[in-house]
């Protein structure tokens, strides 16, 4: 039997068995189980066993047998013991035992396992056991060779003492209590006494770290002696060298605070990897109590060879700069000194110096002069092992720097027009000779200032404010692209130029071509920054009819940062011939820098194939390195239990499949948040605060990290950091804190369904899901308002938060309670995107007639942050929003509107958004009275929009005209055909396609079988696109609702009956998508049709992927049948957050 009590008495056989003569031969056992750190004492009394009648066995790791004259007395054991009695006789007096047993628990704790010399450590040794045994104990705590005895307490035997240690090193600490024939011993513990490291105590210095390249040498550092120290040397984040400290303390050096040298060998192979030049060095010194980082540099000097300087013979005047080019065949680092002296006066007019740390084969110095004359340029290049000089002669006089030839728009032949020459140069007098169609023409001109105003001119591919404009009047006869050549000269030099002008047979049928970039000034203002992607679309007007087609050609070329170089030598086509008026620029397709985007638009006559329209426009973009905004899933602070079998899983919120191969993941774990690295290479140095004892903070790569609790060192907190980087992305990181609880609390997890990421959009709802299988109830709390509960969310798995409840930085905590009242919490930090309010929008006129009045919506005053603002204009009807226009233009021009419903009011909604989807909204109301007839000019404009594939203009007309009688069968056919051609690439144009289709099918009897099939194909493509935009729930739902409207309209057709089952399945799939931003159980849609009325509900099925095709998200409830017609026509009302 197992003895459960900590103490007791065992008698065998008992008196009753002996008196009744019922004792039978056999074996009887008593087990005293002991855990680590526990001991037991057994005292045998009145025990006698005849060897012929029985045997006593005491079993531990060894077995002792006793009988006859070998009588047991007392035993002290530190492991589980089993006492066995074997009886052969029934005679009680020949085999009997009587013993007393006591269990003890004795352990030692320290206030710290690591301490600095002179700092006190508290030791506590605790004895838990039989109170009467205290007087028998003689206890002590031993520190290495020292012995210190302490007294006892009353309830439990407790030894408490403090001690400091003057010398660093490892000390073996144990506590024991001598007890009769044995000793109670606590498990042996190690105490590490280590020096506190700081810059002031170490006084780190080093010898000159300047060496000859490829010559093996030692980098020698010197510091005050401390023990112990582990060294790590990092060179340019490329090479890492580790050097462990000596194993034993040098007491004399420690007492004298002597200096110690540490050497790191830098061999030739390491230097070859680094290359010649100046390199960053980081020396890290650390032990278990502190660490110090000492940054410095090392110079690998390479001899300078073949030093040459080149500069133009003629240079201009300030503020224009000229370039001095210095080259070497080898050599680094290099200090370059430049001095420009007047030959006539020998006075120095310019001094400059340039330091090149690495790769110095080509160096550039921008120089300037302010007076004409002859000058000598003297240059010297040197480093620690070599020096070389060179010189050149120059003359300063007025210069021409660039010429750009343009007609600004195509020129009709046989008519007087202008060719424009934009000239950038120094102030002075010049003569220009220009050749147009073989005929030379001379023009003298003077540049009298350095800045000009060209705001009235069309868009140009450069910043024209530093260019003088010269107009050349000429009649051109040859059709097509005509080359323009010429030169500009002064007294000593000539500047040649080449350009092109476009000559058409007739005047262009295209006017007012604009890329929708928000720029109305004709030149370049601030560039559009490409954060992830940008969509560019164009707009223009036709001035003639019978156009057969419109073609678009998009091109890009890099430009200098000053934007005053009017050249595009490196022009690259995006598409050979594109029939789409939109271009998508993705940040990872171009290197960081400034680029000019150019679009060429051409049109041809339908009868003569004569080119009748040709225009071009430009815009400026800046490709910057992107930042990936992400979080670690599960909340910012989560709690877990201390069960060794628990597996912790960490995962990024980034869609790994989308970025697979483009970004890298690096996971780190530390017991101190301040020790988490911001650079991956630093995390790969072994650190004292790693979650795995003395180990690297870096754990693994990949988008998922899993750690078992039994792998981690003991701690109450673990801090996780994920650093994500890539060739087109700045390295960014996210953190998560793991709190370990001693009790067996429920395991909870927090997942975000909507408006997730590092920042939330203030105009969208946030949906959180608190997962917990063992939870009986749940509580939700919002801070920084302490204890501010969210009563609508309590006892709910899901919590839907309206942005109005949140301040720019808020914390939401979800707590789960099990049946025993124990709880665990998860906290998520919510940070709002920056505000860009302060503006307003207006619609004019404030009243008009349906289908004829042209309205304009203008927004102004909104504050742009780091990235430009995007404006989206919607027509709102019955709670549904239809997209009219999107882009960077804050103006919506020349739109017609349908007749108003209640009080003749029509609602226009404007969303003003940053590229990271932080939006504010404006609701505008305009009175539109009914007008039966539609002006033919409106239909002509719709035809032009269809011809030019201008989706935004098509949507603006169709969304309004569908309620009139002007969209006949042929026009609807043409619109559906155009929508079928449109690519499903981005959310906004896909929404416009869905909106147009829902309106053009509002009278399905006008559609032929071919159009019905085209509509179904379009719906299939939209369905396939929607899951890829799952992060934009509000927009997605509006798309889905338009598709549901289209489907229900088609199902009204009797001839559509063969497709009924297929379309019912489509409605089911669309219903699933529609539920994406609604919490389970919340009423989504109330509907009533000819056959049924009911509600569409979302159910809680513990599935967090809202687009899981194998999961049913919808249920039809409260159905009441009216007639046999089974068509469901859903018209969803708007849904509001909690």
From TrEMBL:
<protein>
    <recommendedName>
        <fullName>PKD/REJ-like domain-containing protein</fullName>
    </recommendedName>
</protein>
<feature type="domain" description="PKD/REJ-like">
    <location>
        <begin position="537"/>
        <end position="959"/>
    </location>
</feature>
<keyword id="KW-0812">Transmembrane</keyword>
<dbReference type="Pfam" id="PF02010">
    <property type="entry name" value="REJ"/>
</dbReference>
<keyword id="KW-0472">Membrane</keyword>
<dbReference type="InterPro" id="IPR002859">
    <property type="entry name" value="PKD/REJ-like"/>
</dbReference>
<keyword id="KW-1133">Transmembrane helix</keyword>
<keyword id="KW-0677">Repeat</keyword>
């Amino acid at each position: 039997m197992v003895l459960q009590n900590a103490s007791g008495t065992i008698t065998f056989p008992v008196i009753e068995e002996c008196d009744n003569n019922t004792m039978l031969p056999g074996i009887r056992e008593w087990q005293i189980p002991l855990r680590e750190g526990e001991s037991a004492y057994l005292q045998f009394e009145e025990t006698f066993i005849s060897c012929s009648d029985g045997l006593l066995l005491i079993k531990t790791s060894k077995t002792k047998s006793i009988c006859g004259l070998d009588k047991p007395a007392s035993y002290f054991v530190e492991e589980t013991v089993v006492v066995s009695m074997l009886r052969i006789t029934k005679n009680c007096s020949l085999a009997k035992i009587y013993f007393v047993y006591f269990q003890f628990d004795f352990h030692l704790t320290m206030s710290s396992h690591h301490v600095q010399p002179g700092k006190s450590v508290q030791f506590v040794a605790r004895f838990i056991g039989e109170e009467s045994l205290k007087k028998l104990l003689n206890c002590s705590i031993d520190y290495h060779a020292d012995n210190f005895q302490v007294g006892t307490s009353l309830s439990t035997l407790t030894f408490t003492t403090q001690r400091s240690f003057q010398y660093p090193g490892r000390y073996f600490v144990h506590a024991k209590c001598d007890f009769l024939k044995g000793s109670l011993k606590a498990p042996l513990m190690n105490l590490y006494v280590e020096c506190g490291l700081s810059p002031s105590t170490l006084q780190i210095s080093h010898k000159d770290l300047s060496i000859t390249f490829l010559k093996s040498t030692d980098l020698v550092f010197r510091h005050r002696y401390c023990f112990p120290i582990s060294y790590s040397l990092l060179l340019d984040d490329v090479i890492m060298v580790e050097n462990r400290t000596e194993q034993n303390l040098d007491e004399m050096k420690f007492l004298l605070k002597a200096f110690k040298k540490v050497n790191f060998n830098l061999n030739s192979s390491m230097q070859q990897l680094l290359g010649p030049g100046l390199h960053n060095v980081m020396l890290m010194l650390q032990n278990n109590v502190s660490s110090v980082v000492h940054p410095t540099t090392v110079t690998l000097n390479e001899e300078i060879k073949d030093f040459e300087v080149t500069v133009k013979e003629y240079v201009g005047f300030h503020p224009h700069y000229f370039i001095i080019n210095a080259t070497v065949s080898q050599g680094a680092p290099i200090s370059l000194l430049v001095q420009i002296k007047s030959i006539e006066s020998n006075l120095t007019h310019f001094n400059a110096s340039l330091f090149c740390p690495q790769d110095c084969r080509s160096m550039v110095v921008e120089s300037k002069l302010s007076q004409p004359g002859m000058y000598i340029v003297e240059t010297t290049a040197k480093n620690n092992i070599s020096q070389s000089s060179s010189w050149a002669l120059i003359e300063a006089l007025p210069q021409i720097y660039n010429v750009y030839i343009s007609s600004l728009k195509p020129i009709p032949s046989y008519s007087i027009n202008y060719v424009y020459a934009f000239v950038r140069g120094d102030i002075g007098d010049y003569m220009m000779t220009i050749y147009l169609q073989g005929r030379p023409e001379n023009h003298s001109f003077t540049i009298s200032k350095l800045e000009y105003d060209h705001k009235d001119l069309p868009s140009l591919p450069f910043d024209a404010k530093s260019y003088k404009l010269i107009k050349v009047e000429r009649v051109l006869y040859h059709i097509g692209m005509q080359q323009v050549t010429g030169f500009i000269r002064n007294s000593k030099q000539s500047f040649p130029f080449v350009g092109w002008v476009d000559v058409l047979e007739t005047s262009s049928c295209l006017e007012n071509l604009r890329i929708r970039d928000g720029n109305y000034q004709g030149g370049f203002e601030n560039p559009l920054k490409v954060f992830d992607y940008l969509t560019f679309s164009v707009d223009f007007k036709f001035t003639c009819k019978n156009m057969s087609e419109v073609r678009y050609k998009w091109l890009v070329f890099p430009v200098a940062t000053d934007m005053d170089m009017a050249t595009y030598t490196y022009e690259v086509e995006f598409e050979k011939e594109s029939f789409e008026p939109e271009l998508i620029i993705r940040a990872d397709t171009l290197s960081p820098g400034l680029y000019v985007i150019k679009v060429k638009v051409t049109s041809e006559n339908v009868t003569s194939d004569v080119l009748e329209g040709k225009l071009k426009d430009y815009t400026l973009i800046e490709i910057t390195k992107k930042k990936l905004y992400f979080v670690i899933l599960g909340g910012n602070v989560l709690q877990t239990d201390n069960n060794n079998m628990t597996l912790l899983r960490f995962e990024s919120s980034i869609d790994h499949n989308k970025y697979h191969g483009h970004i890298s993941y690096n996971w780190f774990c530390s017991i101190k948040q301040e020790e988490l690295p911001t650079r991956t290479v630093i995390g790969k140095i072994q650190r004292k605060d790693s979650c795995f004892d003395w180990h690297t903070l870096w754990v693994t790569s990949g988008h998922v990290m899993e750690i078992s609790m039994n792998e981690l060192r003991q701690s109450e907190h673990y801090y996780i950091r994920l650093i994500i980087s890539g060739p087109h992305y700045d390295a960014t990181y996210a953190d998560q804190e793991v709190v370990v609880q001693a009790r067996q609390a429920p395991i909870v997890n927090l997942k975000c369904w909507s408006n997730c990421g590092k920042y939330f959009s203030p105009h969208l709802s946030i949906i959180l899901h608190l997962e917990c299988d063992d939870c009986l109830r749940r509580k939700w709390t919002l801070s920084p308002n302490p204890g501010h509960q969210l009563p609508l969310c309590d006892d709910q798995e899901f919590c839907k938060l309206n942005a109005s409840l949140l301040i720019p930085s808020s914390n939401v905590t979800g707590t789960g309670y099990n049946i025993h009242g124990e709880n665990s919490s998860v906290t998520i930090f919510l940070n709002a995107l920056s505000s860009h309010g302060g503006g307003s929008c207006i619609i004019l006129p404030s009243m008009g007639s349906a289908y004829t009045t042209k309205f304009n919506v203008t927004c102004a005053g909104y504050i742009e942050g780091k990235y430009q603002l995007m404006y989206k204009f919607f027509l709102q009807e019955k709670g549904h929003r239809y997209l009219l226009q999107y882009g960077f233009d804050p103006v919506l021009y020349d739109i017609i509107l349908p007749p108003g419903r209640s009080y003749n009011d029509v609602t226009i909604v404007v969303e003003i958004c940053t590229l990271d989807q932080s939006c504010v909204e404006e609701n505008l109301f305009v009175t539109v009275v009914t007008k039966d007839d539609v002006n033919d000019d409106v239909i002509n404009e719709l035809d032009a929009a269809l011809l030019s594939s201008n989706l935004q203009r098509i949507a603006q007309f169709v969304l309004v005209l569908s309620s009139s009688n002007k969209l006949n069968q042929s026009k609807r056919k043409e619109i559906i055909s155009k929508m079928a051609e449109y690519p499903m690439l981005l959310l906004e144009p896909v929404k416009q396609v869905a909106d147009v289709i829902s309106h053009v099918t509002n009278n399905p009897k006008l559609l032929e079988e071919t159009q019905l099939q085209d509509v179904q194909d379009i719906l299939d493509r939209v369905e396939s696109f929607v899951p890829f935009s799952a992060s934009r729930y509000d927009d997605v739902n509006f798309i889905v609702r338009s598709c549901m409207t289209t489907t229900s309209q088609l199902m009204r057709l009797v001839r559509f009956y063969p497709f009924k089952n297929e379309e019912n399945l489509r409605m089911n799939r669309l219903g699933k998508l529609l539920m994406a931003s609604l919490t389970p159980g919340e009423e989504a849609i109330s509907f009533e049709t000819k056959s049924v009325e009911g509600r569409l509900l979302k159910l809680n099925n513990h599935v967090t992927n809202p687009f899981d095709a194998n999961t049913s998200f919808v249920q039809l409830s409260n159905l009441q049948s009216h007639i046999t017609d089974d068509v469901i026509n859903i018209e969803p009302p708007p849904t509001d957050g909690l």
